[in-house]
């Protein structure tokens, strides 16, 4: 494998079959000239140019400092979640961190306050880890990322962990939600607007309850979370718990 070109945080290389790849790794292209042999032991991530051109272009644009920061985040998160980020999950996280830091420079804040409650309760472990990650980034880069970034980070960590989740749980939850919706519509002789915001919120809250039940995170008494149950009674008038 030979070296072709260096980008912000990556190196363009060519394998023995003439296939171009963009590779990531500490010092992978440092001090090399075009045609030099690459130390393949330094390669940590790779993207084949023809197959993943969008990802290749994305890698080229990410700052080298962001790649270093992403590596630190990954080193923290992987053992805590017992997961291994694949190349595309890694790239998505690096791109998000890069974009988040650029938003700070431009004083842009994308609010996610209306989903914070759901995310914290549906993915408590991932959310707590995301808070640690935000603290790490703030310390490393000397910035003050908004709380909303914890929510966005949580999505990345849930996605990374999804490969290790039991598919059966997802199937059960989906079937249960479908059955509950059918019962509600039959009982109240109504058709729920599946495109409405209220429906979306209800499904999110319902999913929280089902995840807790399936993962045995409800109270030992077997009763559902009181605060959440009370909230749903008020929010969704058609229920009679």
TrEMBL record:
The keyword Transcription does not apply. Keywords: Repeat. The lineage of its organism: Bacteria, Bacillati, Bacillota, Bacilli, Lactobacillales. The keyword Acetylation does not apply. It comes from Lactobacillus johnsonii. GO terms for biological process: regulation of DNA-templated transcription. Pfam families: CAT_RBD, PRD. This is Antitermination protein BlgG. One of its GO terms (molecular function) is RNA binding. Residues 61-167, 168-241 form the PRD domain.
